[in-house]
């Protein structure tokens, strides 16, 4: 899975990185095995308010500089969650295989 290899490569390169994932997903399991910090989303829907609120709290606490969403489902809540943050870039990539 591309996103897993991307995150592992970024971690190996020394970047401060974490992932916001669904619990027990393949991404969750593989990233935890690679000692990548993970935080948990609750729902797969576009506008799950609890996930948007959680993501905003994580962004305040950890002061990430870049947030990278990877699916069309992720882009909308991430766009809402990142609204108003200065010095934070939201990048989105949708992969078609």
Which secondary structure elements does this structure contain, and how are they paired or packed?
Layout: H1 2-12, E1 19-21, H2 26-33, E2 38-40, H3 49-62, E3 66-69, H4 72-81, E4 89-92
Parallel strand pairs: 1-2, 3-4
Give an overview of the whole structure.
- It is a single chain.
- The strands form two sheets. Strands 1-2 form a two-stranded parallel ribbon.
- The protein has helices at residues 2-12, 26-33, 49-62, 72-81, and strands at 19-21, 38-40, 66-69, 89-92.
- By secondary structure, it is of the alpha/beta class.
- The mean pLDDT is 90.
- The termini are close together.
The share of residues in helices is 40-55%
Amino-to-carboxy terminus distance: 10 Å
Largest sheet: 2 strands, parallel
Instruction: Give the C-alpha Rg.
Output: 13 Å
Question: Judging from the principal axes of the Cα atoms, what is the shape?
Answer: globular
- Uncertain stretches: none
The strands making up the biggest β-sheet line up spatially as 1-2
How much of the residues is beta strand, in percent? Answer: 5-15%
What is the number of helical segments per DSSP (H or I, 4+ residues)?
A: 4
Mean pLDDT: 90
The assigned structural class equals: alpha/beta
The overall strand count is 4
Keywords:
globular; alpha/beta; two-stranded parallel ribbon; 4 strands; 97 residues
Brief summary:
Helix 2 links the parallel strand 1 and strand 2 (38-40).
């Amino acid at each position: 899975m591309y996103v897993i290899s991307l995150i592992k490569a970024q971690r190996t390169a020394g970047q401060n990185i974490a992932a916001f994932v669904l619990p027990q997903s393949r991404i969750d399991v593989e990233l935890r095995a690679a000692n990548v910090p993970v935080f948990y989303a609750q729902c797969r829907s576009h506008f799950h308010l609890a996930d948007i609120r959680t993501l905003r709290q994580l962004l305040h606490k950890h002061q990430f500089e870049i947030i990278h969403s990877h699916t069309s489902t992720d882009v909308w809540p991430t766009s809402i969650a990142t609204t108003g943050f200065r010095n934070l870039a939201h990048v989105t990539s949708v992969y078609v295989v």
